[in-house]
Amino acid sequence: MTVVTDVADPALDPLLEGLRRRPDVEAPELRAWDAADRYLLDTAAPLARAASTAVVVDDTHGALALGALTLGAQSVRVHQDSLVAQHALDANAGALAPRITHHSLDSVMATDAPLALLRLPRSLDRLDAVARHLAAHAHPDAVFVAGNMLKHMTRSQNEVLRASFERVDVSLARGKARLLTARGPRRVAPAQPARGFDPDHELHIVALPGVFAGASLDIGTRALLDATGQLPAFTTAIDLACGSGVLAAFLARQSRHARVIASDVSAVAVQSAALTAAANGVRVETVHDDGLSQQPDASADLIVLNPPFHVGAAVHTGIALRLFAEAGRVLRPGGQLWAVWNSHLAYVPALERAVGPTRQVARTPKFTVTASRRR
After folding, report:
1. Which residue, 180, 241, 334, 374, has fewest beta-carbon neighbours within 10 Å?
2. Does position 5 have pLDDT exceeding 60, yes or no?
3. Which of the four pLDDT bands, split at 50, 70 and 90, describes residue 10?
4. Which pLDDT band holds residue 311 (cuts at 50, 70, 90)?
5. What is the CA radius of gyration of the chain?
6. Looking only at Cα atoms, what is the longest distance across the chain?
7. Same CATH fold assignment for domains 12-185 and 194-373
8. Region 12-185: CATH code
9. Could you report the per-residue pLDDT of 27-79, keeping only the tens digit for each?
């Protein structure tokens, strides 16, 4: 049996210290790697040195992929659900870029890869989907090392991995991080999308594993939907940070002849939005995009947005502020951004700076819905 260790490798120090988060939010309190990344790399170092090919899944900014190459892997096959994570890895890669290839989850695992490194997702459904895909295409002797910070780990993750692997070993904690090492991949069926129905708005919801809120309405999106009786007319509308695409499907149903776009940084969100649109019998264009980088200036009449308020594990307004600015650029003069947000964040001044005059449309005990008109 292959033995892995957790002895710190000094070759990793300059690599990790030089990593940046761009184009992700950068701030003094945010770093491009954490103790879980370092623990994963130190533990898997003997396997990485001997690997012709290593597999990395959901690396946040490149620490795992570039670390595996630094330790000696000849090439790395990478799957990252987040487009921002992909761009961050590419920006950090430098001279190592030719040895990195990006893949879908379905195709990232290869039988010639003896090692796979995985950032454990918080979503058990996402972990199950990833584990199933990796196990189904792995060499029988491949070793899978997964980890995260302790505050984002539960015992349930062990059981999810055991459904796809014969053996799962749990490490000791180090630096407030822990690892799960899986061996003996089983040939199991791939995970299927979840399906739900919201009777209040008569909307079908389809969500691949890992999409925010799954196949149900989160309370913020529900608050926005409940206020849509006052929406302005539109010929082009965008569901920004679309998640499962339920808002896009609603907009497409409201105006059958309008152009409706669902955009998200997450690949599984974009795929889910397409499935949700099909389930509701409407036409929606889906775009895998960082913000609205693929949309022209002054091209939309209406944008709806339920912005995230976490950057990784940290509560941070950086992503929301970026999305407000993108909406301000893409809206036509007089166009409107309808946003829902946790009331304690008090976004009105930021919305007025980025877009224009902002009014409160609705307020619940937790959420505020606003409409901002482009100057």
Report:
1. 334
2. no
3. confident
4. very low
5. 22
6. 66
7. yes
8. 3.40.50.150
9. 888 899 999 999 999 999 999 998 999 999 999 999 999 999 999 999 999 99
Half-sphere exposure of 202 (CA within 13 A, CB side): 4
**Pairing label, strands 259-264, 285-288:** parallel
Amino acid symbol at 256? R
Evaluate whether 261 touches 287 at the Cβ level (below 8 Å).
yes
Q: How many CB atoms lie within 10 A of CB 306?
A: 27
Q: Cα separation of 221 and 43, whole Å? A: 41
Q: Label residues 172-197 b or e (16+ Cβ within 10 Å = b).
A: eebeebbbbbbbbbeeeeebebbebe
What angle (nearest 5°) sits at the alpha carbon of residue 284, between those of residues 282 and 290? Answer: 155
Pairing assessment for the beta strands 285-288 and 100-102 based on DSSP bridges: unpaired
pLDDT tens-digit readout, 230-260: 899 999 999 999 999 999 999 999 999 999 9
What single string gives the DSSP state of each residue in 106-135? TTS--TT--EEEEEPPS-HHHHHHHHHHHH
| Cβ neighbours around 108 below 10 Å, total | 22
Q: Is 133 left (phi over 0), alpha (psi -120 to 50) or beta?
A: alpha
Checking if the pLDDT of 309 tops 70, the result is no
Question: C-alpha 194: how far from its chain's center?
Answer: 17
Between the two ends of the chain, the Cα-to-Cα distance in Å is 66
* Structural domain boundaries in the chain: 12-185, 194-373
**What's the fold here for domain 194-373?**
Rossmann fold (3.40.50)
Q: For residue 306, give the 3-state DSSP assignment.
A: coil
